[in-house]
Amino acid sequence: MAGDTIDITPSEQAALQLVIARHARIEGSSRFLFDAATPPVAGSPRDLADKAELTDPYVLAGVLLYAAEDHLRTVLLVMEKGPLPSYSLFTLFRTAAEAEVRCRHLLDPAISEKLRLARGLNERLDNLTEQRKAVGNQAHFDERVDHLEKRALCHGIRPKWSVPKRGDVPEVIGFEGETVKSEVELFSLYLRHGSAAVRFLGGHVHSKPWVQFVRSRAQRTADPKVVAIPTDVDVGLLVGIVDSVLTVRDANVGHWLTLAGYPADLWTHATKAPP
Length: 275
Known about the structure:
Elements: H1 10-26, H2 29-36, H3 45-51, H4 56-81, H5 88-106, H6 113-135, H7 138-154, E1 159-161, E2 172-175, E3 178-179, H8 183-190, H9 194-205, H10 209-212, E4 219-220, E5 227-228, H11 235-259, H12 265-270
Antiparallel strand pairs: 1-2, 2-3, 4-5
């Protein structure tokens, strides 16, 4: 590595340009979605949820779509302008990927609307749990979880309770038989390389040496006790992660359109590569 540029092979350059082009076509997908799929078609799942005031999973999915795109847009700006940073793109992809897999769980087209609402309530429960960890307002937590429980019961959704240890008070840990999914579970369900991906990207978030200094890239030096490990980005690895996250993004956009009563190929045509 010399200065702030790196030497990459022609095949790496070609792969990088392809994924940048795909990424550029997807940029702005949130704006496209909310413009093209609003209002939902009469009788569609989203339309029925709107009319019944049961929009929790759809509102949350929309927020996650926007949050993921915000991070993906930053990645695209950096990749188009260069030079490629060593670590920070992986940190951005970690955040974007989590938003996308959580969104994918909410927009699963194969589940019932009852289960979709339960997953929306689980997402809200997880948010309250994280808020309680940050600010410690137990009274607020109890009041809001009680509200979620009543909301669930009104729609035939069963709260799932913890099994208390001695002296503990049972708590709601999920709805409709599902507990709040962990990041590892969601990555394993929806992202290529699943749990390995979340741990690798999480390693970058926490600046762990095992991902920053990859032993397989070690090079001998004049000192037999010292090896040199390049810190420039592994282009092939970066391309694979970009492609993996964008694949989930594509699926989410298609499901969002389908659940609003629009054909998913609207998005396919909108992002088709130019001839």
